[in-house]
Amino acid sequence: MQFATNLTKTESFPRCNSITGFIGVTSKHSKSKLLLIRTAVKSRALSLNLNSKRSFAVKCVAEQKLQDPQQQKQQEEEATSSLSPIAPDATSIASSIKYHAEFTPLFSPENFELPQAFFATAQSVRDALIINWNATYDYYDKLNVKQAYYLSMEFLQGRALLNAIGNLELTGPYAEALSKLGYRLEDVAWQEPDAALGNGGLGRLASCFLDSLATLNYPAWGYGLRYKYGLFKQRITKDGQEEVAEDWLEMGNPWEIVRNDISYPVKFFGKVVSGSDGKKHWIGGEDVTAVAHDVPIPGYKTKTTINLRLWSTKAASEEFDLYAFNAGKHTEAYEALGNAEKICYILYPGDESTEGKVLRLKQQYTLCSASLQDIIARFEKRSGATVNWEEFPEKVAVQMNDTHPTLCIPELLRILIDIKGLSWKDAWNVTQRTVAYTNHTVLPEALEKWSLDLMQKLLPRHVEIIETIDEELIRTIITEYGTEDSDLLEKKLKEMRILDNVDLPAEFADVLVKSKEAIDIPIEELQTSEHVENGDNDDEEEEEAIAVKDETDESFIEDKKEELPEPVPEPPKLVRMANLCVVSGHAVNGVAEIHSEIVKDEVFNAFYKLWPEKFQNKTNGVTPRRWIRFCNPSLSKIITEWIGTEDWVLNAEKLAELRKFADNEDLQKQWRESKKNNKIKVAAFVKEKTGYSVSPDAMFDIQVKRIHEYKRQLLNILGIVYRYKKMKEMSAVERKANFVPRVCIFGGKAFATYAQAKRIVKFITDVGATVNHDPEIGDLLKVIFVPDYNVSVAELLIPASELSQHISTAGMEASGTSNMKFAMNGCILIGTLDGANVEIREEVGSDNFFLFGAKAHEIAGLRKERAEGKFVPDPRFEEVKEFVRSGVFGPYNYDELIGSLEGNEGFGQADYFLVGKDFPSYIECQEKVDEAYRDQRTWSRMSILNTAGSYKFSSDRTIHEYARDIWNIEPVKLP
């Protein structure tokens, strides 16, 4: 049969659009269908053993039941030791791809175009991953090792094909196999849509962590939600950003496996009742089902393949109201199913409406509840007949990636107390030893606060538990600070309580009253108080006159009504999720050294003083596999050649060895050629996506990240506008002499309801439309906004970048991870001393980092000066604002955008993010950039030293620190 037996290593496949033409299956076959399938499966089984460094044992469950344990163990050992893998040759891989094109198709058999080729290729890779996957968790189960579980609302995976075959060390064989089938690996890989499971750095960090966990052989899982549409797909029109639904799942996802047998109930609303046994029971309400979808995450040069488990939601079929449907009430009939399914429709649904808030909270609770139920079920299974809950923290570590998974704290307590029967004391002890919290922000709006009333309706049992935790905290605060100083105690309670604007529980209601009564009031204050109580004679006479005033005098009554002050609305009752995390977890970490200090000194200072041992720093990191090895193969080859080994891919410290070659002219020449080739690729991409032509000989200046005022894309584009204005004021000769040619590239999404961020996107595109069509400027300046920025676009842009902008207001960026990716690829950073910029600058050297702007410790004082009217704007800043207002960039009214930079106070004004303050420093720093770029030898040296200094920012280093300091887990390498 052609499919299984007629392939040789030297055979070349002609390009063919018919699957059956490749496979050799026609209607003339006389062999039985059974023989066809058996032969095909045999061929696929051969192709599964793709890596000569791996050996696998495939178990038959049905046979196991018929064997005694000793016999089964012996057979497994024999299978593991004697199963000799087949070399990963292109012919076997091509056979596997063709098998999937025929027997696991997602397309019609008439054609075998690029999309079909991608799916068949991905499924063939998944076969190898499944064997490693199963072997990994069988081994973990046998050893009953402690596992870490990483809960995150985002996992920004990017395309998986090249990463997977790269980690399996099969890039060459797969490229050859696809060439035999008439395709280029790069073209096939480009057919894969980015998984729309994240928004920015938070989700990409989580994905880098999974890669490192697998590569370093740590037992761990990721838990997230399987968003049907993700965040949104961004289109750029004449009106700026337009959001449309993502379509990443329209053709299916070849990497995931739906585990229909793994599902858990998730409840909302209802009420809490006490049973006759004294236990609390959460009954009634709305029930949905969370179903597991598993995605394999392979490690690099290891068998270890860990799991990312994503939850989708559905309602039971009986929830479909058949009677209503048949009565023509179709929308009503589908309501329960729709309510369940929409939980996992999009990432971060707009929360300006009550409905949006409810949906977001449902998402967070679904992630927490389903994941905790699953973690507990796995623990119980491993424990066997006797479950010792005291051992739970010895086998399970739960990491909360920011505050989104905070509800896993009350959910774990609910399960342990209400379902497993533990006492509050025991359950609280288990919970505190199990969970840990990573803080990713100092921005108040990102430190989540949920309406207590809303949470009470949606999760009544959890509110009871949170109230109990709050009571425990109040008790601790009173014990720590005593009741003598009522002002101090009141301040600490206000600052630290989980429940904000909520009265003290009855048990503590009189604590502050008694402490105030006990204070001795000085004689001076008594005299002042007595004077106030007696008042002046004039006031007394006025009161007497009012008392005898005719009560029927309507004009008098109206006058008094006008004098009455407006009632002050009661502040909303809130649940402070970050405080709940800090109180309930055993570890709290920031994600850069400066951020962790701000967390201790400002954000959670009161908690730090109470529990200093909880607080740690874990500077973020990114995987060098995806962010150098796979996305920048030409640079990777150069690094390996000069270092003399490829070990740097697993041991990033070896990148530091490049330092001794930084002045070598041969290395610098190769370095520049690699960068130029990457720039040529980006130039073609920009032309395809935007229609603009850019010169690869110009400096590529890139800022790609979420659009937010604190990240200051506005500062960048205003700097470009200033540059453009100065060019226009010069002759052609002067322009060429004074300015280095630049291509300024932006990318990133503005949240759909963030009006100011969307104005910034519109402004950037308007500036680009003007500058790019100006014949006087030509290639001297181009401004590009790349639509729908994602991981795949980043993998193209970052290797081509020469200058990268990380210019957030100091003290506001927790860490950043794109700065690390750019540095790894030899890009020089311009930035403030914010987030990981501080550490990057220390490692690459201050001479190889363009620094500007105010420092973090100065920001509060600068804002205070602004509020007092003491800020004097730089004339160049005023000049550029007037230039924008002149209408040179089109008819759009930018008063609100520019107005946010003016005034001394008021919502949306007073330049809260200090664009005006840092503007002169920024443009002067950009002049230094031009000067350095003119000397390409100096620039190349700086670029090499940036890559050499990026060794510290591998996510492998970060994961080792988490494993050692927070999770207490050890690597477990499969035999």
Automatic annotation (TrEMBL):
One of its GO terms (biological process) is glycogen catabolic process. It is found in: Plastid, Chloroplast. InterPro entries: Glycg_phsphrylas (IPR011833), Glyco_trans_35 (IPR000811), Pyridoxal_P_attach_site (IPR035090). It catalyses: [(1->4)-alpha-D-glucosyl](n) + phosphate = [(1->4)-alpha-D-glucosyl](n-1) + alpha-D-glucose 1-phosphate. Belongs to the glycogen phosphorylase family. It is an enzyme of class 2 (transferase). Its cofactor is pyridoxal 5'-phosphate. The modification N6-(pyridoxal phosphate)lysine is found at residue 821. It holds the Pfam family Phosphorylase. Residues 67-86 are annotated as: Disordered. This is Alpha-1,4 glucan phosphorylase. It comes from Crotalaria pallida (Smooth rattlebox). Keywords: Allosteric enzyme, Carbohydrate metabolism, Chloroplast, Glycosyltransferase, Plastid, Pyridoxal phosphate, Transferase, Transit peptide. One of its GO terms (molecular function) is pyridoxal phosphate binding. GO terms for cellular component: chloroplast. Its EC number is 2.4.1.1. Gene3D superfamilies: Glycogen Phosphorylase B. The lineage of its organism: Eukaryota, Viridiplantae, Streptophyta, Embryophyta, Tracheophyta. It comes from the Eukaryota. Allosteric enzyme that catalyzes the rate-limiting step in glycogen catabolism, the phosphorolytic cleavage of glycogen to produce glucose-1-phosphate, and plays a central role in maintaining cellular and organismal glucose homeostasis.
